[in-house]
Amino acid sequence: MKIIVVLLALTTVPLILPVLLSKLAGARRLALAVTVVALVKVFDVNLANHAYYRGMSRSFDVGTVDIWLLCLVVFHVIQVRYSGFRWTPPQRPGLVSPVTGIIPGIPLYGAFLLIAALSIFGSKEPLFGWMDFSKLFRGVLLMWAVANLVRDDRLAESVPLYLLLFVIPQELVAASQHLQGVYWVPGTFTHKNSFAMSMNLILPVILAQALNGNRFRWFSLLAYGGGCIAVILSRSRTGWVMMALGAALVIVVSVGLALAKNNRRLLRFQGIVLLLMATASLPVLAVSADGILGRMDEDRVASMNFRNINNEIADKLAEENVLGVGLNNYVRELKEPVAAKLQVLDHTVVHHAYKLVAAELGYIGLAMWLMAMGGLWVIGLATLRNAQKTGPRIVTLGILVGMATGQIHSLMESDILRRETYFIFMALAGLLVAMNQREGLGGIPGTIRRFRSKVRWLASQVSEKPSIPSVSPPGSRYGLTPKRDITGIERP
Question: Are 364 and 323 a contacting pair, CB within 8 Å?
Fold first, then answer.
C-alpha cells in the first residue's frame, strides 16, 4: 500500500504543486524552507530492500526528498519557460550550472558519476551498485536545484535563518531522546555519527550569522548553543572535535575580516559574544566533563585496531582493481579470500570515507571525487575573497567551514556517504554555488578568467623593460632634431 501511495505522489504532486507554487509571490522563499524541512527527516519506501546488507545503500529509496526534488525541477522549468532550459553561466537568462569543472564546460560531478557507473559493470553485485548510484545522482540533482533557488540578495542574506528550520527540530528531538534515557542521541538520523556530522555541517553557518550578520544575531547564537549541546549528547568523539574546530575557524576568520575592514563596532560585538560563549560553556563542560573524558577513552585502542584492519583491506582492494570492486560492493567483496586472510567478519564496513571510495571506485574514482569537492572549494574561496555583499560572504564562510569539518571527519567516519548526510552536504554545496552566482563571479570559469588575467598582468610587468630617462628630445642626438642642424638653421 505504501508503494502505491508513493508512486501516485511521484506522478501527481510534481505536476500540480510546482504550478501552484509558481503563482505565489514568495515562491522561492517557500521552496527553500520546504527543502530544508524535507532534510530534517527523510521518509521513504524501500524497493528491492536487502535489510541485512551493510553497504552504504541497501535498497532503492523513494520518498519525500525525491518527490520534492522533482517538484523543484518542474518549478525551475516553469520559472524559465521564456528563456529555455539550459545550463548557462549566470550572466545569461535561464538556469545556472552549479559546478562546471576546472576545465570550463566539463562537470566534475558528472565525471565522477560516470566513473561510478562504469565501476558497476565489473562488480559482483550490480544491483547494490545501482542502489547507491541512484543516491549519488539525486544528490547532484539536489545541488543543482538548490543552486537555482537563491536568485535575489534578500533571500541570500536569509539563508542562515532558513537553516534554523533544520537545527531547531534536531535540538528538540535530541533533548527529548536524552530525557527518555537514550545514551547515544541520534536526533532524526539512524546513527549518532551521521547526526553529529550533519549538525557540524550546518552549525558554522549559524555561528557566522551570529558573529557577522545584521539580523537575528542573538537568536542565532542561542540556536547555535543548543546545537552544540545536541552534538555533545550524541557522544560522537570525532563530532566533538569537529564541533570545536568549526567554532575556532569561524571565530578566527570572522575576527580577521572585521580587523581587515577596521570595523570597531563589529569587533566589540564579537568580543562580547565570545565572552558570553566562554561563560556559557563553563557550566556545560562542568556537568559533562566526566562523561566526555570517559567517552574519549572508551574502547579507543580496540576501535583503532578495528579501523586499521578495515583500512588495510580497502587499500589492498584499491591497489588490485583499477576501477575498484564496484560502487557499494565493498561489503560484498569481504566474503572473498582477501578478508578471510585477515580474519574479518563479512559484515564489516570501512570507516575511512576516502579509502572506501578508493576500494569501490579505484584511485581514479577517488581522484574525481576529490576534484569535484575541490571545485566547490575554488568557488567558495573566490566568493569569500571577492564578495561585495555581507550576506553571501557570511553564508560562504559558514558552509566552507562546515565542509572542512565534514571532510576531516571523513578520515574517521564514512557517514558523509550515507544518504541523509550526503543530501545535506549536496544541498549546502548548492547554496555555496548560489552565493557565488549572486555575486556574479561566474563559478570556476570566472575564477579561471580572473587567475589568467592576473598571470598575464604579472607577465607583462616582468617582461616590460624599464625606460631610461633622457635629457634629449625623442629622435635627437646631442640636442639635434631632424629639422635643425648644428648652425641652428631650421631646414625643410
Answer: yes
For 278-336, what is each residue's pLDDT tens digit? 887 777 666 666 566 665 555 565 666 777 777 888 888 888 888 888 898 888 777 65
Identify the three-state secondary structure at position 154.
helix
Query: Of 156, 159, 163, 151, which Cα lies nearest the Cα of 37?
Result: 163
Q: How many Cα atoms occupy the beta-carbon half-sphere of 129 within 13 Å?
A: 25
87 φ, ψ (degrees, to nearest 5):
-95, 95
Distance between CA atoms of 460 and 467, rounded to whole angstroms? 14
Model pTM score: 0.83
* Nearest CA among 408, 413, 323, 329 for reference residue 373: 408
pLDDT value for 464: 61
Backbone angles phi, psi at 90, to 5 degrees: -70, -20
What digits encode the pLDDT tens for the residues 16-65? 888 787 777 788 889 899 999 989 887 777 676 776 677 788 878 887 88
pLDDT at 12: 79
